[in-house]
Amino acid sequence: MNSWYSSSTARHWTTAATAPTLAGTALDFHRAFPGYAPTPLVPVPDVAGELGVGRVLVKDESSRLGLPAFKILGASWACRQVLTAQPGATLVAATEGNHGRAVAAMARHFGVPATVFVPQVMLPRTAARIEGEGAEVVRVAGDYDATVRRASEYADAAPGRALVQDTAWPGYQQVPAWIVEGYQTLLAEIDAELGGAPDLVVVPVGVGSLAEAVVRHYRRPGGPRPRLMSAEPDTAACALASLSAGHPVAVPTGATVMAGLNCPTVSTSAWPVLQSGLDAAVAVTDDDARQAMADLDRLGLSSGPCGAATLAAARAALGRDAPPERRTALDLGPAAVAVLLSTEGNTESSTEGKPA
Ligand SMILES: Cc1ncc(COP(=O)(O)O)c(C=O)c1O
Questions:
Q1: Whose CA is nearest to atom 13 of ligand 1?
Q2: Which is the closest atom of ligand 1 to the Cα of 69?
Q3: Which H or E run contains 191?
Protein backbone atom coordinates (compact mmCIF):
# COMPACT_ATOMS: atom_id res chain seq x y z
CA MET A 1 0.00 0.00 0.00
CA ASN A 2 1.09 3.61 -0.60
CA SER A 3 2.41 5.35 2.49
CA TRP A 4 2.01 8.90 1.10
CA TYR A 5 -0.66 11.01 -0.57
CA SER A 6 -0.65 14.69 -1.46
CA SER A 7 -3.04 17.15 -3.07
CA SER A 8 -2.01 20.33 -4.87
CA THR A 9 -5.52 21.84 -4.71
CA ALA A 10 -6.41 21.36 -1.02
CA ARG A 11 -4.81 24.60 0.14
CA HIS A 12 -7.17 26.61 -2.09
CA TRP A 13 -10.37 24.94 -0.88
CA THR A 14 -12.82 26.74 1.44
CA THR A 15 -15.50 25.14 3.66
CA ALA A 16 -19.11 26.18 3.67
CA ALA A 17 -20.17 27.87 6.92
CA THR A 18 -20.71 25.28 9.68
CA ALA A 19 -24.17 24.25 10.87
CA PRO A 20 -25.77 26.36 13.64
CA THR A 21 -25.66 24.89 17.14
CA LEU A 22 -28.44 24.65 19.71
CA ALA A 23 -27.10 27.46 21.88
CA GLY A 24 -23.78 29.21 22.37
CA THR A 25 -20.43 28.04 21.08
CA ALA A 26 -18.20 25.20 22.12
CA LEU A 27 -15.34 27.61 22.87
CA ASP A 28 -17.48 29.66 25.29
CA PHE A 29 -18.72 26.45 26.91
CA HIS A 30 -15.16 25.17 27.41
CA ARG A 31 -13.91 28.51 28.76
CA ALA A 32 -16.61 28.39 31.44
CA PHE A 33 -15.98 24.69 32.27
CA PRO A 34 -14.48 23.95 35.74
CA GLY A 35 -10.71 23.48 35.41
CA TYR A 36 -10.47 24.72 31.81
CA ALA A 37 -7.08 26.04 30.69
CA PRO A 38 -5.45 26.07 27.25
CA THR A 39 -3.01 23.17 26.93
CA PRO A 40 0.70 23.98 26.42
CA LEU A 41 2.25 24.60 23.00
CA VAL A 42 5.82 23.49 23.58
CA PRO A 43 8.74 24.47 21.28
CA VAL A 44 11.09 21.60 20.37
CA PRO A 45 14.06 23.30 18.65
CA ASP A 46 15.97 20.01 18.21
CA VAL A 47 13.10 18.66 16.13
CA ALA A 48 12.90 21.89 14.10
CA GLY A 49 16.60 21.46 13.24
CA GLU A 50 16.04 17.83 12.31
CA LEU A 51 13.09 18.66 10.04
CA GLY A 52 14.66 21.75 8.46
CA VAL A 53 11.92 24.21 9.45
CA GLY A 54 11.99 27.39 11.56
CA ARG A 55 10.02 26.19 14.60
CA VAL A 56 8.27 23.01 15.69
CA LEU A 57 5.72 23.24 18.49
CA VAL A 58 4.00 20.31 20.17
CA LYS A 59 0.40 20.89 21.26
CA ASP A 60 0.50 18.83 24.44
CA GLU A 61 -2.89 17.24 25.22
CA SER A 62 -1.57 15.00 27.99
CA SER A 63 -3.78 16.79 30.50
CA ARG A 64 -7.09 18.16 29.25
CA LEU A 65 -10.00 18.83 31.64
CA GLY A 66 -8.67 16.17 34.01
CA LEU A 67 -8.10 13.43 31.39
CA PRO A 68 -4.92 12.43 29.51
CA ALA A 69 -6.25 13.07 25.95
CA PHE A 70 -7.91 15.78 23.86
CA LYS A 71 -11.12 13.81 23.31
CA ILE A 72 -13.07 15.37 26.17
CA LEU A 73 -13.19 18.63 24.18
CA GLY A 74 -15.58 16.98 21.74
CA ALA A 75 -17.37 14.72 24.22
CA SER A 76 -18.06 17.55 26.69
CA TRP A 77 -19.72 19.83 24.13
CA ALA A 78 -21.65 16.98 22.49
CA CYS A 79 -22.89 15.60 25.85
CA ARG A 80 -23.97 19.08 26.88
CA GLN A 81 -25.91 19.57 23.64
CA VAL A 82 -27.43 16.07 23.78
CA LEU A 83 -28.56 16.54 27.39
CA THR A 84 -30.02 19.97 26.57
CA ALA A 85 -32.20 18.25 23.96
CA GLN A 86 -32.83 15.08 26.03
CA PRO A 87 -32.44 15.86 29.76
CA GLY A 88 -31.52 12.91 32.01
CA ALA A 89 -30.69 10.53 29.14
CA THR A 90 -28.32 7.60 29.63
CA LEU A 91 -25.26 8.41 27.50
CA VAL A 92 -24.13 5.58 25.20
CA ALA A 93 -20.83 5.41 23.27
CA ALA A 94 -18.43 3.03 21.53
CA THR A 95 -14.71 3.55 21.93
CA GLU A 96 -11.14 2.32 21.59
CA GLY A 97 -10.48 4.11 24.89
CA ASN A 98 -10.27 7.87 25.03
CA HIS A 99 -13.69 8.88 23.68
CA GLY A 100 -15.57 6.45 25.92
CA ARG A 101 -13.67 7.54 28.97
CA ALA A 102 -14.47 11.16 28.14
CA VAL A 103 -18.19 10.41 27.69
CA ALA A 104 -18.14 8.49 31.00
CA ALA A 105 -16.50 11.45 32.74
CA MET A 106 -19.09 13.84 31.28
CA ALA A 107 -21.95 11.56 32.35
CA ARG A 108 -20.62 11.76 35.88
CA HIS A 109 -20.26 15.53 35.57
CA PHE A 110 -23.88 15.92 34.45
CA GLY A 111 -25.18 13.26 36.89
CA VAL A 112 -26.51 10.77 34.32
CA PRO A 113 -25.61 7.07 33.68
CA ALA A 114 -23.29 5.95 30.85
CA THR A 115 -22.94 2.66 28.96
CA VAL A 116 -19.73 2.29 26.93
CA PHE A 117 -19.17 -0.46 24.34
CA VAL A 118 -15.56 -1.54 23.72
CA PRO A 119 -13.90 -3.94 21.27
CA GLN A 120 -12.91 -7.33 22.70
CA VAL A 121 -9.21 -6.54 22.08
CA MET A 122 -9.20 -3.58 24.47
CA LEU A 123 -6.55 -3.84 27.16
CA PRO A 124 -8.13 -4.56 30.58
CA ARG A 125 -6.48 -1.46 32.11
CA THR A 126 -8.09 0.74 29.43
CA ALA A 127 -11.52 -0.72 30.16
CA ALA A 128 -10.87 -0.31 33.90
CA ARG A 129 -10.22 3.42 33.40
CA ILE A 130 -13.63 3.80 31.72
CA GLU A 131 -15.30 1.88 34.57
CA GLY A 132 -13.35 4.07 36.96
CA GLU A 133 -15.32 7.06 35.63
CA GLY A 134 -18.52 5.28 36.72
CA ALA A 135 -19.67 3.84 33.38
CA GLU A 136 -20.93 0.35 32.62
CA VAL A 137 -18.54 -1.23 30.09
CA VAL A 138 -19.78 -3.83 27.55
CA ARG A 139 -17.27 -5.85 25.49
CA VAL A 140 -18.12 -6.61 21.85
CA ALA A 141 -16.62 -9.46 19.80
CA GLY A 142 -15.46 -7.60 16.70
CA ASP A 143 -13.56 -4.52 15.53
CA TYR A 144 -14.24 -0.85 16.19
CA ASP A 145 -16.95 -0.60 13.50
CA ALA A 146 -18.80 -3.61 14.96
CA THR A 147 -18.60 -1.98 18.39
CA VAL A 148 -20.11 1.25 17.05
CA ARG A 149 -22.98 -0.72 15.47
CA ARG A 150 -23.72 -2.45 18.81
CA ALA A 151 -23.70 0.85 20.68
CA SER A 152 -26.04 2.41 18.12
CA GLU A 153 -28.48 -0.55 18.28
CA TYR A 154 -28.44 -0.43 22.08
CA ALA A 155 -29.16 3.30 22.12
CA ASP A 156 -32.06 2.87 19.69
CA ALA A 157 -33.57 -0.09 21.57
CA ALA A 158 -35.14 1.93 24.42
CA PRO A 159 -36.24 5.51 25.05
CA GLY A 160 -34.09 7.58 27.40
CA ARG A 161 -30.80 6.52 25.81
CA ALA A 162 -28.67 8.87 23.69
CA LEU A 163 -25.75 7.83 21.51
CA VAL A 164 -22.75 10.16 21.73
CA GLN A 165 -20.51 8.87 18.95
CA ASP A 166 -17.45 10.57 17.47
CA THR A 167 -18.00 9.30 13.94
CA ALA A 168 -20.80 10.04 11.43
CA TRP A 169 -22.75 7.78 9.09
CA PRO A 170 -25.85 8.36 6.94
CA GLY A 171 -28.64 9.39 9.33
CA TYR A 172 -26.27 10.11 12.24
CA GLN A 173 -24.70 13.52 11.69
CA GLN A 174 -25.62 16.02 14.40
CA VAL A 175 -23.74 14.58 17.38
CA PRO A 176 -20.48 14.05 15.45
CA ALA A 177 -20.82 17.64 14.17
CA TRP A 178 -20.95 18.86 17.79
CA ILE A 179 -17.89 16.74 18.58
CA VAL A 180 -16.01 18.30 15.66
CA GLU A 181 -17.01 21.76 16.93
CA GLY A 182 -15.72 20.87 20.38
CA TYR A 183 -12.33 19.84 18.99
CA GLN A 184 -11.94 23.26 17.37
CA THR A 185 -11.26 24.81 20.79
CA LEU A 186 -7.79 23.25 20.56
CA LEU A 187 -7.16 25.06 17.25
CA ALA A 188 -8.43 28.39 18.56
CA GLU A 189 -5.94 28.03 21.42
CA ILE A 190 -3.07 27.44 18.98
CA ASP A 191 -3.92 30.54 16.93
CA ALA A 192 -4.35 32.66 20.06
CA GLU A 193 -0.96 31.62 21.40
CA LEU A 194 0.86 32.10 18.06
CA GLY A 195 -1.01 35.32 17.22
CA GLY A 196 -2.08 33.65 13.96
CA ALA A 197 -2.04 30.28 12.27
CA PRO A 198 1.06 28.05 11.91
CA ASP A 199 2.36 27.00 8.48
CA LEU A 200 1.89 23.24 8.97
CA VAL A 201 -0.41 21.24 11.24
CA VAL A 202 0.07 17.48 11.60
CA VAL A 203 -2.99 15.63 12.93
CA PRO A 204 -3.46 11.96 13.89
CA VAL A 205 -6.42 10.23 12.21
CA GLY A 206 -8.62 7.41 13.50
CA VAL A 207 -12.07 8.04 11.96
CA GLY A 208 -10.97 11.53 10.91
CA SER A 209 -13.22 13.70 13.11
CA LEU A 210 -10.28 15.57 14.64
CA ALA A 211 -8.80 16.05 11.16
CA GLU A 212 -12.22 17.27 10.02
CA ALA A 213 -12.06 19.89 12.78
CA VAL A 214 -8.56 20.90 11.67
CA VAL A 215 -9.59 21.24 8.02
CA ARG A 216 -12.83 23.09 8.85
CA HIS A 217 -10.94 25.49 11.09
CA TYR A 218 -8.08 26.22 8.69
CA ARG A 219 -10.14 26.24 5.50
CA ARG A 220 -12.86 28.59 6.74
CA PRO A 221 -13.83 31.47 4.49
CA GLY A 222 -11.23 34.24 4.72
CA GLY A 223 -9.10 32.18 7.10
CA PRO A 224 -5.38 31.38 6.94
CA ARG A 225 -4.36 28.37 4.87
CA PRO A 226 -1.62 26.35 6.55
CA ARG A 227 -0.57 22.97 5.14
CA LEU A 228 -2.53 20.17 6.78
CA MET A 229 -1.19 16.62 6.99
CA SER A 230 -2.69 13.48 8.56
CA ALA A 231 -0.84 10.70 10.38
CA GLU A 232 -2.14 7.11 10.57
CA PRO A 233 -0.84 3.65 11.52
CA ASP A 234 0.24 1.74 8.39
CA THR A 235 -2.04 -1.10 9.57
CA ALA A 236 -5.18 1.11 9.79
CA ALA A 237 -4.65 3.85 7.21
CA CYS A 238 -8.27 4.30 6.12
CA ALA A 239 -7.90 8.01 5.26
CA LEU A 240 -4.73 7.45 3.24
CA ALA A 241 -6.31 4.51 1.37
CA SER A 242 -9.49 6.50 0.70
CA LEU A 243 -7.65 9.64 -0.43
CA SER A 244 -5.42 7.55 -2.72
CA ALA A 245 -8.46 5.75 -4.21
CA GLY A 246 -10.55 8.94 -4.52
CA HIS A 247 -13.47 7.33 -2.65
CA PRO A 248 -14.05 5.92 0.86
CA VAL A 249 -12.26 2.59 1.35
CA ALA A 250 -12.59 0.30 4.39
CA VAL A 251 -9.29 -1.25 5.44
CA PRO A 252 -8.80 -4.40 7.53
CA THR A 253 -7.34 -3.57 10.93
CA GLY A 254 -5.28 -5.65 13.34
CA ALA A 255 -3.34 -4.57 16.39
CA THR A 256 -1.33 -1.35 16.65
CA VAL A 257 0.24 0.54 19.54
CA MET A 258 -1.70 3.56 18.22
CA ALA A 259 -4.97 2.14 19.63
CA GLY A 260 -6.97 5.36 19.22
CA LEU A 261 -6.17 5.38 15.49
CA ASN A 262 -7.15 1.75 14.89
CA CYS A 263 -10.24 2.47 12.74
CA PRO A 264 -11.26 0.71 9.50
CA THR A 265 -13.40 3.52 7.99
CA VAL A 266 -13.47 7.30 7.79
CA SER A 267 -16.44 9.17 9.26
CA THR A 268 -18.87 10.04 6.45
CA SER A 269 -18.92 13.70 7.47
CA ALA A 270 -15.12 13.86 7.64
CA TRP A 271 -14.58 12.21 4.26
CA PRO A 272 -15.60 15.02 1.86
CA VAL A 273 -13.84 17.61 4.05
CA LEU A 274 -10.59 15.63 4.15
CA GLN A 275 -10.76 14.87 0.44
CA SER A 276 -11.14 18.56 -0.39
CA GLY A 277 -8.95 20.22 2.22
CA LEU A 278 -6.17 17.90 3.41
CA ASP A 279 -2.80 18.62 1.73
CA ALA A 280 -1.10 15.36 2.61
CA ALA A 281 -1.55 12.00 4.35
CA VAL A 282 1.15 9.67 5.59
CA ALA A 283 1.21 6.24 7.25
CA VAL A 284 3.68 5.37 10.01
CA THR A 285 4.77 2.12 11.60
CA ASP A 286 4.44 1.15 15.26
CA ASP A 287 8.25 1.29 15.53
CA ASP A 288 8.29 4.86 14.18
CA ALA A 289 5.60 5.89 16.68
CA ARG A 290 7.49 4.23 19.56
CA GLN A 291 10.71 5.99 18.55
CA ALA A 292 8.87 9.33 18.41
CA MET A 293 7.38 8.68 21.88
CA ALA A 294 10.82 7.97 23.30
CA ASP A 295 12.31 11.08 21.65
CA LEU A 296 9.53 13.33 22.96
CA ASP A 297 9.95 11.76 26.38
CA ARG A 298 13.65 12.72 26.32
CA LEU A 299 12.56 16.29 25.50
CA GLY A 300 10.37 16.27 28.61
CA LEU A 301 7.05 15.69 26.83
CA SER A 302 4.55 13.01 27.81
CA SER A 303 3.19 11.77 24.48
CA GLY A 304 1.30 8.52 23.90
CA PRO A 305 1.52 6.55 20.65
CA CYS A 306 -1.33 8.41 18.88
CA GLY A 307 0.15 11.77 19.85
CA ALA A 308 3.71 10.86 18.92
CA ALA A 309 2.47 9.54 15.55
CA THR A 310 2.47 13.17 14.38
CA LEU A 311 6.23 13.46 14.97
CA ALA A 312 6.74 10.16 13.15
CA ALA A 313 4.63 11.52 10.26
CA ALA A 314 6.55 14.82 10.15
CA ARG A 315 9.75 12.78 9.93
CA ALA A 316 8.30 10.65 7.12
CA ALA A 317 7.53 13.84 5.18
CA LEU A 318 10.42 16.17 6.10
CA GLY A 319 13.11 14.05 7.77
CA ARG A 320 16.55 13.37 6.31
CA ASP A 321 15.47 10.00 4.87
CA ALA A 322 12.13 11.22 3.48
CA PRO A 323 11.66 11.19 -0.32
CA PRO A 324 12.34 14.81 -1.44
CA GLU A 325 9.07 15.11 -3.35
CA ARG A 326 7.24 15.11 -0.01
CA ARG A 327 8.98 18.32 1.11
CA THR A 328 8.31 19.80 -2.34
CA ALA A 329 4.61 18.91 -2.07
CA LEU A 330 4.30 20.58 1.33
CA ASP A 331 6.09 23.68 -0.02
CA LEU A 332 7.36 24.96 3.34
CA GLY A 333 10.04 27.63 3.64
CA PRO A 334 13.01 27.37 6.04
CA ALA A 335 11.26 29.68 8.54
CA ALA A 336 8.02 27.63 8.56
CA VAL A 337 6.23 27.04 11.87
CA ALA A 338 4.97 23.46 12.29
CA VAL A 339 2.53 22.30 14.97
CA LEU A 340 2.35 18.61 15.90
CA LEU A 341 -0.88 17.66 17.67
CA SER A 342 0.16 15.36 20.49
CA THR A 343 -3.35 14.20 21.30
CA GLU A 344 -2.67 12.00 24.33
CA GLY A 345 -0.18 11.64 27.15
CA ASN A 346 1.93 8.57 27.75
CA THR A 347 -0.26 6.89 30.35
CA GLU A 348 1.88 3.75 30.43
CA SER A 349 4.90 5.55 31.88
CA SER A 350 2.92 7.65 34.36
CA THR A 351 1.59 6.63 37.76
CA GLU A 352 -1.99 7.17 36.59
CA GLY A 353 -4.27 4.34 37.60
CA LYS A 354 -1.68 2.78 39.90
CA PRO A 355 -1.95 2.70 43.68
CA ALA A 356 -0.11 5.61 45.33
C1 LIG B 1 -5.38 10.04 21.36
C2 LIG B 1 -6.12 10.10 20.08
N3 LIG B 1 -5.60 10.81 19.06
C4 LIG B 1 -6.24 10.90 17.89
C5 LIG B 1 -7.44 10.27 17.67
C6 LIG B 1 -8.07 10.36 16.31
O7 LIG B 1 -9.26 11.07 16.28
P8 LIG B 1 -10.34 10.73 15.17
O9 LIG B 1 -10.87 9.36 15.47
O10 LIG B 1 -11.34 11.80 15.30
O11 LIG B 1 -9.62 10.74 13.86
C12 LIG B 1 -8.01 9.52 18.69
C13 LIG B 1 -9.33 8.85 18.51
O14 LIG B 1 -9.84 8.19 19.35
C15 LIG B 1 -7.35 9.43 19.93
O16 LIG B 1 -7.85 8.73 20.96
A1: 260
A2: 1
A3: helix 174-194
Asked if residue 103 lies in contact with residue 135, where contact means CB atoms within 8 angstroms, the answer is yes
For the segment 317-344, what is each residue's pLDDT rounded down to a tens digit? 999 999 999 999 999 999 999 999 999 9
* pLDDT in the model for residue 16: 80
The confidence score (pLDDT) of residue 183 equals: 97
In whole angstroms, give the CA distance from residue 200 to residue 34.
31
Distance between CA atoms of residues 339 and 190, nearest Å: 9
Calculate the average pLDDT of the chain: 94
- The type of residue at 254 is G
Environment class of 260 (CB within 10 Å of its CB; exposed 0-12, middle 13-18, buried 19+) = buried
Atom of ligand 1 nearest to the CA of 304: 1
Which pLDDT value is given to residue 20? 46
Cβ–ligand 1 contact at 204 (below 6 Å): yes
DSSP string, 23-68: SS-HHHHHHTSTT--PPPEEE-HHHHHHHTSSEEEEEE-SSBTTBS
Q: What is the DSSP string of 255-275?
A: --S-GGG--SS--TTHHHHHH
Contacts of 243 (CB under 8 A, 6+ apart): 5, 7, 274, 275, 278, 281
**Quick check: CB of 69 below 6 Å from ligand 1?**
yes
What residues contact 104, with CB distance under 8 A and at least 6 apart? Answer: 114, 116, 130, 133, 134, 135
Buried b (16+ CB within 10 A) or exposed e, 289-327: bebbbebbeeeebbbbbbbbbbbbbbbbbbbeebeeebb
- What is the amino acid identity at position 335? A
Q: What are phi and psi of 36, to 5 degrees?
A: -70, 135
